[in-house]
Hints:
3-stranded parallel sheet; 5 strands; 4 helices; alpha/beta
Amino acid sequence: xxxxxxxFHPNAPWxxxxxxxxNNVVTGLAQIVIVAESDTKGGTWDGANGAxxxxxxxxxxxxxxxxxxxxxxxLLNNGCTPLSWPTSNLEDLLAPIIHKSQIVQEKQQQASxxxxxxxxxxxxxx
Length: 126
């Protein structure tokens, strides 16, 4: 069964619940998702895990130093792809990711059934 979510009117006041719902739309429209840093709660965490459930490729910054980003490591354990950081050449690091994004976009454009805007606002009750 499909349950309709709230619409996101441009003049609607900001609410945490709307921001969290908006993550599903943002990641639903994305070809890839890149997470710089996350906590184990909140919008970034929910957005990254939601993107994984949507079948999106999620890249998570993984520092090469002893800097502690334990929540980022938990996202990597959940199935995200590590993104080494810092990097001396950002272009070389991002080029393959951008290429993957373009491939996903081409596949989405060639799909025989294209999702409409309302399908991004719907969830299934399981």
